[in-house]
Amino acid sequence: MKIALIVLSILVALVLVGWIGLQVKPKPFPLPELAQSELKTVPLPDGLPAPVERFYRAQYGDQIPVIETVLISGRARIRPFGVWLPARYVFVHNAGQDYRHYIEATFFGLPFLKVNEGYLDGKSFFESPMGTYHDEPNTNQGANLALWAEAAWFPSIWLTDPRARWEAVDADTAILFVPFEDGEENFVVRFNPRTGLVDLMEAMRFQNPGNPNKVLWITNEVRTENQPTVAYATWLDAGKPWAAFTLEEIQFNLEMSEYIRARGN
Question: Can you give the residue ranges of every domain in the chain?
Answer without folding.
Answer: 2-261
